């Protein structure tokens, strides 16, 4: 029989890949193509490094999936989880019941949240957090005597999850195309991508223009029908789209003007990614609701939730009575114990400050230096996330660069070179992005960026040989 225990000599990668393609359906995957290639088998992590079953050591530029912010292999996380598993592995928070880690975590989270946030609702994921927000927003307006306020405005190319509400809020055309989405009442405006839409404008002008699309949509729908606007401070899965500094303050002004609730999806930007506890704090927005997940537990155990600001909390808690919503795993004690230990690490190691003052600026300089590469149109970063565009012909302005024809898949070619040479980077079309663990040191950032530069050279040679230049 094949050896399928990872730490055992003779571990049989091919046999595991065969079982994988026979039985395991992966997220966002073409299984026919995967069967040809065989899945990569990740077996171990330590700090910012991962090892696969073939012994390859990789520097993880993506924190797993934007989540392993404190890095892999933290013994104190294991201990915290084991302790809670021993004491009380599960109890629910329905029927007038609670548990210690959930209460302690809620109390700590509001300490780190922006002013006005005193309440937390827990979920098992970011998608469930956004589903919860949709239900809360609708319930809020019902309690406020304006039940017709049901429209929620989001943005093209946003990512808010894979549940029916999450995928509807999201602006991913490929998700909507696969059936009956978005659900009624969810509307999308353009994303604040200067590269895509900003030709002929300054960045500052473009930020105001892009926020203006929200006002146009509110007026089109009738302000009395609009419940909320939702956005990621920096769009993550859409390709690390960093909005101009004028964008979010103008979004805030427009929401205030029409009484529309503002929702910040901080599933990626929360917990230090941008050098602040929450991305909205950097962007100059004062949201009413915040979705979080990922970094709250550094992905060690699934956890998400909603931070509920004063305006909504007052209605729900003081006036609303029962809110008929909740998950078996809302306030899961093991997940909350993991998150408490994760927060302790973040505070004790000053990770948020380190991103703001040390690693974020270092990534900006190091990653920014890639912009001189012949294949790179422009490169930018914010905190510990960054992106660059692969282009066929460079130009002085990002708006004059010539893109590769769609469908060549240069980003995927580049990603394969990265993986083969020990660095994990994600491709979003022809945009290459990173979001490393917040514990990555400046020396490790340099190591990552040098490997990226080397792989860009390989990609350039490769596309030249394919005759794509
Ligand atoms: N919102 C954002 C901004 C995200 O990036 C993600 C996940 N990438 C989600 C929501 C959904 O989270 P989950 O996958 O935990 O459901």
From TrEMBL:
InterPro entries, alphabetized: Aminotrans_3 (IPR005814), Aminotrans_3_PPA_site (IPR049704), PyrdxlP-dep_Trfase (IPR015424), PyrdxlP-dep_Trfase_major (IPR015421), PyrdxlP-dep_Trfase_small (IPR015422)
Entry keyword set: Aminotransferase, Pyridoxal phosphate, Transferase
Species of the source: Massilia aerilata
Transmembrane regions listed in the UniProt entry: none
Protein name: Aspartate aminotransferase family protein
Family recorded in the similarity comment: Belongs to the class-III pyridoxal-phosphate-dependent aminotransferase family.
Listed SUPFAM superfamilies: PLP-dependent transferases (SSF53383)
Cofactor(s) the protein needs: pyridoxal 5'-phosphate
One Gene Ontology molecular-function label: transaminase activity
One Pfam match: Aminotran_3
